[in-house]
């Protein structure tokens, strides 16, 4: 068993916050253990909770299309979430839940060692890049975190709600593609 598989096994039994009482499945993350690029969402929704996989609902279909635009697919990137269990009724994860869950994600990053990290949406960016992150102003900009390049995109759910945001996201994706070419 690899270290990441061992981590997944422990995470599946996690009871560090109250979300363990209402979840169907822990959504640990999927993708190659040596992925150069990692995507981080907010937390599982209903479909993800039922299937135990990140981004499998409508937003997930859009994420797949976004990946395809820059010659990526799920076999090439690692996809995880800030919190591994579904918040009831898809509310935002509480700061205490995010804090309790964070060590799982940090260890995933240590083991996978991605060179590029892409936060999907404001919640992941505020936790992962900086607390006052403004998604409308700062999406598509590169930040640095522990020697890795980090960018935030609009969340796929936001792109479904507001298609006017899609051209900006297309530009952001091209910047990610250019960074990957430099790896
Ligand atoms: N939204 C997220 O942020 N993550 C998922 O896995 C699904 C929807």
Low-confidence stretches: none
By CATH, the superfamily comes out as Uracil-DNA glycosylase-like domain
Strand residues, percent = 5-15%
Largest sheet: 5 strands, mixed
Structural class call reads: alpha/beta
User: Can you list the strand order of the major beta sheet?
Assistant: 2-1-3-5-4
Task: Please characterize this protein's 3D structure.
This protein has one domain: Uracil-DNA Glycosylase, subunit E. 44% of the residues lie in helices and 13% in strands. It contains eight helices and five strands, in the order αβααβαβααββαα. A five-stranded mixed beta sheet has the order 2-1-3-5-4, sandwiched between helices. The two termini are 28 Å apart. The structure holds uracil. The site of uracil has 11 residues, from loops.
Question: Which features does this protein show?
Answer:
13% strand; 183 residues; five-stranded mixed sheet; binds uracil; alpha/beta
In short:
The chain is an alpha/beta fold and 183 residues long.
Q: What order do the helices and strands come in, and which of them pair?
A:
Layout: H1 3-12, E1 37-41, H2 46-51, H3 58-69, E2 77-81, H4 95-112, E3 116-120, H5 122-128, H6 135-138, E4 143-145, E5 148-153, H7 156-161, H8 166-182
Parallel strand pairs: 1-2, 1-3, 3-5
Antiparallel strand pairs: 4-5
Bound molecules: uracil (URA).
The site of uracil has 11 residues, from loops.
């Amino acid at each position: 068993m690899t270290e990441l598989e061992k981590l997944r096994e422990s995470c599946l039994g996690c009871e560090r916050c109250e979300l363990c009482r209402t979840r169907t499945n822990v959504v640990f993350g999927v993708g190659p253990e040596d992925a150069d690029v990692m995507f981080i969402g907010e937390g599982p929704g209903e479909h993800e909770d039922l299937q135990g996989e990140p981004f499998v609902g409508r937003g997930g279909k859009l994420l797949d299309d976004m990946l395809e635009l820059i010659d990526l697919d799920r076999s090439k990137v690692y996809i995880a979430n800030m919190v591994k269990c579904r918040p009831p009724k898809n509310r935002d994860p509480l700061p205490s839940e995010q804090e309790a869950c964070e060590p799982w994600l940090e260890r995933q990053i240590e083991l996978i060692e991605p060179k590029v990290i892409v936060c999907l949406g404001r919640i992941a960016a505020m936790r992962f890049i900086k607390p006052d992150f403004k998604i409308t102003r700062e999406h598509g900009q590169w930040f640095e975190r522990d020697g890795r390049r980090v960018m935030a995109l609009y969340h796929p759910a936001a792109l479904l709600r507001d298609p006017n945001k899609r051209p900006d996201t297309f530009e952001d994706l091209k910047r990610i593609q250019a960074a990957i070419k430099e790896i």
